Request: fold
Amino acid sequence: MTVTDTAARIARGQRPAGVRSPAAAPALHHVLHEHRPLVSVRDLQVAYGDGPLVLDGIDLDLHPGEMVALLGSSGSGKSTLMKALTGFAPIGAGTVRVGVHDLTRLHRGELRRVRAQVGQVFQQFNLVGRLSVLTNVLTGGLHDAGAINLAGGFSSSHRRRALELLDRVGIAHKAKDEARSLSGGQQQRVAIARALMQRPTLILADEPVASLDPKMSCTVLELLHGITRDEGIPVLVSLHVMPLALAHSHRIVGLRDGRVLVSAPTAQLSAADLEPIYANDHESGAGHGDDDA
Ligand SMILES: Nc1ncnc2c1ncn2[C@@H]1O[C@H](COP(=O)(O)OP(=O)(O)OP(=O)(O)O)[C@@H](O)[C@H]1O
Reply:
């Protein structure tokens, strides 16, 4: 069991393997130190221009080894919260700590370096369609200057890693194909491989399955879950379908009108507990997954 595994067990509220009684815990203080959340948001307020607050007093922690599902009606602030975690939202008050950095205090250059450590996955995949699948994955390592050799190509070690990642997401046989020739689910898996190419410390997935059929939605979420489990990388994933959140997360955070309404381990939640997130929401009709899950 690695330190990351151990931190993940602690994050899930489990006792680390080999620790039989609380008396043994002090010896693990270094591990507990690692148990500190990777992301810590406190009392976050965001407003666009002179508009109303779209996030109002948000607290959020993301620990190593946990996949957190973000639920909420359309306009509740999910994407804005994701943007705040990469310093792209107009933060009015509060703190957003990622690793040792408080994003609200960083200069642009420092912010760019933090962003390079955050792998992002979007609903529309954001691949370059006419480039090969392999090249799309390789672009995930572009922030690392060593990835490109003097001849203008990618180094062989980066190509090897990109192929390994494509293998991991089950799509290595498509490496030479144009990205635009792939199905939506395949493209999303390429996008995940590209995010992993960054060697991210955190993955943000903003509605990554909104364009996918139910079976492929599960495949993609299981893939993200496996990354959290095997490598300890925390994943924050926004979802519109409540059953998917209940099936594929360690914890659920529910937003309503820019505030946290629910925040609890998924194992302690039922669909009924999540209903208030969508109460009187006639616009999106989201959450239940009757039609789309
Ligand atoms: N760039 C912007 N300028 C002004 N208002 C914005 C901007 N981006 C988002 N908003 C507003 O902020 C609020 C929250 O939007 P946000 O996109 O974060 O919600 P969401 O929960 O992600 O919605 P959806 O599920 O529809 O994607 C909405 O009222 C939206 O209109």
Remarks:
- The CA atoms of residues 53 and 289 lie 29 Å apart.
- Residues 214-231 form the longest helix (18 residues).
- Confidence is low (pLDDT under 50) at residues 1-33.
- Residues 130-199 form one domain.
